Amino acid sequence: ADKLNETQIHSLPAGGMEQDVESTVTVRQPKLPKQTWDDVPKPLQDRERTKQKIQRYVRKDGKCNVHHGNVRETYRYLTDIFTTLVDLKWRFNLFIFVLVYTVTWLFFGFMWWLIAYIRGDLEHIGDNQWTPCVNNLNGFVTAFLFSIETETTIGYGHRVITDKCPEGIVLLLVQSVLGSIVNAFMVGCMFVKISQPKKRAETLVFSTNAVISIRDGRLCLMFRVGDLRNSHIVEASIRAKLIKSKQTKEGEFIPLNQTDMNVGYDTGDDRLFLVSPLIICHEINQHSPFWEISKEHLAHEELEIVVILEGMVEATGMTCQARSSYVASEIKWGYRFTPVLTLEDGFYEVDYNSFHDIYETNTPSCSARELAEVTARSRLPLTWSVSSRLSTQGLPDSQEKRSAAAEELAEQNGDVANIESESKV
């Protein structure tokens, strides 16, 4: 920080900056126990890190790269069977949909055939003196067709239940009630499955890269979001989390520690009016996890920024959530986003061809902490500089030297006061 000054910060050459190149950021693949990894020499650790690409916590398409294994309490999935069916893939969902209806039709068809068999209706087929439980039921196939007509309330009129069959009336009531429950459950499951807002989230786009540059005199991390549809996301809000390994003061290792990144929560800027693409800004200040990270350190960091955009779909009122992530190699230091909004004749036009484009800009490569120290030092008054210089040189031990130093300091402070008064005049 001492080597930087205000002139260097504001007059960095545009062509003198290092070009960010897409490089493979790797994480370590420990083949040794965790407790012995610290004893491995650093060159060996570096070689181990280059063997495997970085493992994302959230993929670019928003899907979480986490698999749940060794779940012993699988009965919990059955206690919430409706959500379990909705979460299944479409091929399994359709298979269960067809299977449930087929099984219920077959089961009640068998029950109608069993009643006819027990009553002897199958032995009196064609006997006009015999009153069967169900007219024109002469086998299992006709019983199956009657079951379908009863449960789906089709009623062709050829097969009909008679009033001389009390057990058939009870079975008719049971099938009608259970059939209504099955219809409500399966149709409701299919409706929720179809109306899920997951596809709506695919039209919410995030920029391929995040950038770090100066905005309003402060170092900021920025990324861009946009909505491809004309129907808007109501009550849209944005969040960002830093996923990075952490070791506590007590020695506990947290592999995927989540740290909130302020993207305007205190100012309300996290509430978006997402009509046109917006640049989301995270100011790197004392409370930011990037406070002490410089351009050089960023290239060696193993971190991931997860961004979450959520809101209600205007057409359906259902909550929609879109996610994306940025690893260290996708955070470009010293760049800004290319403008995409232009004013046409009576309307604003958004050019999504430039949505992911960035351009290089003058940005100091030091950390935000070092930048703040240099900026604060350049704004200090002259009296502070004189007194601090004297304090760094040390005061004499003898009383005479102390008094002489005090008199000299008073004279210098008087001169400073005169200079400041003259400058004010």
From TrEMBL:
Keywords carried by this UniProt record: Ion channel, Ion transport, Membrane, Phosphoprotein, Potassium, Potassium transport, Transmembrane, Transmembrane helix, Transport, Voltage-gated channel
Family label: Belongs to the inward rectifier-type potassium channel (TC 1.A.2.1) family. KCNJ6 subfamily.
Cellular compartment(s): Membrane
Domain Potassium channel inwardly rectifying transmembrane: start-end pairs: 58-197
Region (Disordered): 1-27, 391-425
Naturally occurring in which organism (per UniProt): Sinocyclocheilus anshuiensis
Catalysed reactions listed for this entry: K(+)(in) = K(+)(out)
Residues marked Role in the control of polyamine-mediated channel gating and in the blocking by intracellular magnesium (site): N183
InterPro entries linked: Ig_E-set, IRK_C, K_chnl_inward-rec_Kir, K_chnl_inward-rec_Kir3.2, K_chnl_inward-rec_Kir_cyto, Kir_TM
Biological process terms in GO annotation: nervous system development; potassium ion import across plasma membrane; regulation of monoatomic ion transmembrane transport
Gene: LOC107690833
Domain (Inward rectifier potassium channel C-terminal): residue spans on this chain: 204-374
GO CC annotation: monoatomic ion channel complex; plasma membrane
Gene3D superfamilies: 1.10.287.70, G protein-activated inward rectifier potassium channel 1 (2.60.40.1400)
Composition bias, Polar residues: 1-10
Name of the protein: G protein-activated inward rectifier potassium channel 2
GO molecular function, one term: G-protein activated inward rectifier potassium channel activity
Membrane-protein topology: Multi-pass membrane protein
